[in-house]
């Protein structure tokens, strides 16, 4: 990846992605596959995480209330807060959407719901693929053990989001181009730690925050429980990334660290850019570049807070890895420029994951 010149240029935010009509997508991959003959359990943090994963498995078919009737309009209303940054398109007189009426805006809210859950679904498949890859590329036995439990977790996550979209919303989006391009970059990179940095730290760090918001906002019983259970797995996954990379990054030189900083920043930009939801505007017949341009010109810091909060897990985890301040503090400066550095001292996920274990809590309660 190369770091974009102007991070607010609509032409770098609304991007193309070549997707044919076929149902599979091919990414070239040339990682070394590593066996290890050192079977000693030498990483206590990963051993503990692996034990936790074994006792916190759940069954997507039987542990969630799939017979719940879902009111799709009420669901979209619950989540209005999460899309309020788009209100400026409705309220400012020269908006490119000035001709939209209430009906158009209601449809937009419902589409955003389906779009968000669809991106969760595709991101989960990305996690499934990346973690399968990590089982083969990571050199440590404790990490291979842990990653194998995450593969099962991710299969369950793909299963629940696919089923929810299919049975309850009956609406689905393709993968967003920014998210798709990011996943391609993560998967095609042959360095095993980049798979972790891209997936466990960046994509899953953002997902953990995004699931948390949706869980907080929704009153829909099935979705609420589904998210609570997925988050409890997700917190372990992010902790897995932090524990593994913390050790590995201590041994890298300045140039290698700088490459990781650049990768993390480019990933953060793509994650931010996907939330302009270009695919929703396209489906509703609006021009995404005009929308992005208008939003950039009429930024309301008050309404951007929710967006920035999505990075509230990523930034403290990057700090814990040492890549925020390594070298000349390049990543600190870049995160400052895109308005997310204020989260650096929030709780990091290695401190937090045990408290999010919903499966253990429910078992204890029963
Ligand atoms: Fe997941
Ligand atoms: Fe995950």
What features would you describe in this structure?
The chain is mainly α and 366 residues long. The chain has a single domain (45-365), classed as Ribonucleotide Reductase, subunit A (Orthogonal Bundle), CATH 1.10.620. The chain is 64% helix and 0% strand. It is built from 17 helices and no strands. The chain has helices at 10-13, 44-55, 72-78, 87-91, 102-137, 141-169, 177-188, 192-217, 221-249, 254-274, 278-283, 288-297, 301-309, 314-321, 330-337, 349-352, 358-365. α7 packs antiparallel against α8. The longest helix has 36 residues, at 102-137. The relative contact order is 0.15. The mean pLDDT is 93. Residues 124, 127, 154, 157, 234 line the site of one fe (ii) ion.
Task: Explain briefly what this protein structure is.
By secondary structure, the chain is mostly helical. 64% of the residues lie in helices and 0% in strands. Helix 3 crosses helix 5 (102-137), helix 6 (141-169) runs antiparallel to helix 9 and helix 7 runs antiparallel to helix 8 (192-217).
